[in-house]
Amino acid sequence: MKGFLLSNREYRCFPSGQELGIMKEQVKIRTARPGDLGTLVGFNQEMARETEGKHLDLEILASGVGAVLEDSRRGFYLVAEISGETVGSLMITTEWSDWRNGDFWWFQSVYVQPKWRKLGVFKALHEEARNRAVHASGVCGCRLYVERDNTSAQAVYARRGFQETDYKMFEDLFD
């Protein structure tokens, strides 16, 4: 896929027929805006249902997505558009690493609508996010986590250069 950076907020890529089959339209990546709230909430609901069989509380989810859109210190979303339709998104949050004296950018809430999967949408989102991370001051790398049984997503991430780590994730939830 050939692409170019239009600005620090917009990436356009033009998929080749060989890579993407029948998709001939361009993918535009931009930073999410408050008007994207409903779409992002819907994407998060669908991702949780698809990957973990969970139904997320709509009020809590909308507040959580809105908090990111309102306060960039919490992170930011990138959205992918094709012909004006939002077809995918991912959220970036940061984690300070004292070992590296820098921030890791965490890819979270990754979602591409089913009809647009395997057509380069995540690739465009990843390239834009990675490009921003590489050029941001103090960022030492990108990380993500994936449901252990989601082997198709794991394969996609491996193809994009992510490597499985030796760490397991544990949590202590306060629900």
Task: Describe the protein in words.
It is a single chain. This protein is of the alpha+beta class and about 180 residues long. The protein has one domain (about 1-160): 3-Layer(aba) Sandwich (Aminopeptidase), CATH 3.40.630. The chain is built from 5 helices and 7 strands, in the order E-E-H-E-H-H-E-E-E-H-E-H. It has a 7-stranded mixed sheet. Helix 2 packs across helix 3 (about 60-70). The protein is globular, with a radius of gyration of 16 Å. The protein starts with a strand and ends in a 16-residue tail after the last helix. Mean pLDDT is about 90; it is low at about 1-10 and about 15-25.
Q: In what order do the strands lie side by side in the largest sheet?
A: 1-2-3-4-5-6-7
Q: What's the CATH class, please?
A: Alpha Beta
Proper CATH architecture? 3-Layer(aba) Sandwich
How far the N terminus sits from the C terminus, by CA atoms, comes to 44 Å
Helix content: 25-40%
Order of helices and strands: EEHEHHEEEHEH
In round numbers, the mean pLDDT is: 88
CATH topology: Aminopeptidase
* Name of the CATH superfamily: Gcn5-related N-acetyltransferase (GNAT)
Radius of gyration: 16 Å
- How many individual helices? 5
Annotation, overall tally of beta strands = 7
